[in-house]
Design a protein that fits this description.
It is rod-shaped and about 95 Å long. It has a single domain (2-165), classed as de novo design (two linked rop proteins) (Up-down Bundle). It has six helices and no strands. The protein is mostly helical.
């Protein structure tokens, strides 16, 4: 009888260990997916930053003063490129890129020839494409965070997540700058 109890106890322990390993593997996979999604946002922001730098170069041809102003703004608001960006880095980058783009738009308004320039138009279209990619990447990141948080917070996975140091992840905040649309 003790042999049967011993075998049952060993079987239960083995099953619990295998279950714990399985949950840990799922947590690691979800964690890596969310880190990758955050890095993808950073890549899109860097591409948009490069396109903005190309616009600054183009504005140099139209006005030295505005060009110097834009270069100063860009240097002051340099986009952070990191192998492991944080949610705060991504949100700060987004604010900086919006400010720089607004500054370039203000310069373009002063120079109609600049707005008609084919390189300017193409680069602005590229920036809009990068903005769309950032928007989609943000959605992907928040989706992966949801999956991770479900694993890390729901019982019984929360036990393993707590023991192995997998705290819930932070979502990217909504872009409130677009929330103030006029009422129709």
């Amino acid at each position: 009888m003790t042999i049967i109890i011993t075998v049952v106890v060993i079987a239960v322990v083995v099953i619990l260990i295998l279950w714990g390993i399985s949950v840990q593997n799922k947590l690691v996979k979800a964690d890596e997916l969310s880190k990758n999604a955050l890095r993808q946002i950073n890549v899109q922001q860097m591409s948009r930053y490069d396109a903005i730098k190309a616009l600054v170069k183009l504005t140099r041809e139209y006005s030295a003063h505005e060009s110097d102003t834009l270069k100063g703004v860009i240097e002051a608001r340099k986009v952070t490129s990191s192998a492991s960006p944080t949610v705060e880095d991504i949100q700060r980058n987004e604010q900086n890129l919006r400010a720089i783009t607004a500054q370039i738009s203000a310069v373009a308004e002063q120079y109609p020839d600049l707005k008609a320039n084919q390189v300017y138009l193409q680069t602005m279209n590229d920036i809009k494409g990068y903005e769309e990619n950032v928007r989609l990447s943000r959605m992907t990141f928040n989706d992966t965070v949801t999956k991770f948080n479900n694993l890390a917070r729901m019982f019984p996975g929360s036990i393993i997540a707590g023991m192995l140091g997998f705290p819930p992840k932070e979502y990217l905040a909504e872009d409130t700058s677009k929330a103030d649309f006029p009422d129709f």
